């Protein structure tokens, strides 16, 4: 007779066996009505080239064979991860009495993780469904597996070396975030390093980049040329919008011209739309952009800084995902392109990057999932009270800024705190705050003081060291995507994509 813990321990053994075989570690066991072991199973999708070979299905088949009966009436199945719709359906058909799972699965869980089919009165068969048995161990095994396996997992120093002369006096132009409608049923995974992976219907391989200037004017056209050359050298086809180099006052053309460039970006053929730079100018365009058209275009928008306004408005109005990452001129138009920035950009676009690990020696303990959102702090704060700030509950908020004195950073954080934005997040992840100057009358008050104040003020875990900001070494981050964040031994891990089965 096996109890919950005994049965789940066997399922965990199965999951470990799966991991040893290169399969995602999910294990299952089936017990008969008396609690005796009938069958075991683990994921075999890659081994068997079988999309249905999830642990539960494998265990159900073995149990049915051992009973010589396709009905497993009264039996009980234990699985380390919340079942998907397919497996839950199979278990109902098998007439199981009880289904017990370990860790929740926010990606494909059919017992509340994504949808809840566990107790639908309109289905003709049911089972009692419970979750959370040894959830920590079950989840840890998955997390550890992904951490170890991700080819693209990489350690990034918490303090990227910065040459102050490289830093723009003004905020560099943000690029446009990639907007990608998260269509139900379509895998929109941004990551998977496994060529045999059966999880992704389509590995996105964006092959063309369209450059627009929705914010500040590009000061030096030669830098844009250089950026285009560099992007071509990476294998992209590249085109610049006809007003990418336009100038009107401090802007890259009049409002009308910049709006028209966004419209053209939706209609042209390249799948990625990148901002040439940040600066300022998107805020005044927000009411005039057709957000649904942006989301429906399927284009991947990428940018940063001022572009935060675009990303967050898109998220607020449509829920579509865009990318916070490099901009053409700042990241690819200078003397040197940072290797890691380039690699992270390409791996994120091609869907290879699954976990971004970085040093975070003082991080608060956290292990959470939520919508990743944020960007430039000044831009986030500027959207408070407008229809363009997404209302994210339980999110993972990332923030960076440049040329803002620590007291100004604190003041903007205070605004977000007072507006109720900070308290409802699962984690606050701080990127790089750079290019400010302390004065003697600060009396020792610096960015560390701000972080200390933040921790004392808001009861939300704070993680520092994110390689993102107005710096050379920067990650490409999916704004609006569901991600995980975990800290451990002085490292932080941003899980951009978890395979489940
Ligand atoms: Zn399944």
TrEMBL record:
Needed cofactors: Zn(2+)
Positions of Zn(2+) binding: 54, 84, 87
Stretches the record annotates as Disordered: 153-198
Catalytic reaction(s) noted: adenosine(34) in tRNA + H2O + H(+) = inosine(34) in tRNA + NH4(+)
Active site: 56
The keyword Secreted appears for this protein: no
PROSITE patterns linked to this entry: CYT_DCMP_DEAMINASES_1, CYT_DCMP_DEAMINASES_2
Keyword annotations from UniProtKB, A to Z: Carboxypeptidase, Hydrolase, Metal-binding, Protease, Serine protease, tRNA processing, Zinc
Keyword Amino-acid biosynthesis found: no
Cofactor, free-text remark: Binds 1 zinc ion per subunit.
Molecular function per GO: tRNA-specific adenosine-34 deaminase activity
Xref: Pfam families: dCMP_cyt_deam_1 (PF00383), Peptidase_S66 (PF02016), Peptidase_S66C (PF17676)
Record domain CMP/dCMP-type deaminase: where: 2-130
Signal sequence annotation: none
Compositional bias annotation for Low complexity: 154-184
Entry EC no(s): 3.5.4.33
Entries under CDD domains matching the protein: nucleoside_deaminase, Peptidase_S66
Assembly notes: Homodimer.
Similarity comment: Belongs to the peptidase S66 family. Belongs to the cytidine and deoxycytidylate deaminase family. ADAT2 subfamily.
Function per UniProt: Catalyzes the deamination of adenosine to inosine at the wobble position 34 of tRNA(Arg2).
Protein name listed in UniProt: tRNA-specific adenosine deaminase
Originating organism: Castellaniella hirudinis
Organism taxonomic ancestry: Bacteria, Pseudomonadati, Pseudomonadota, Betaproteobacteria, Burkholderiales
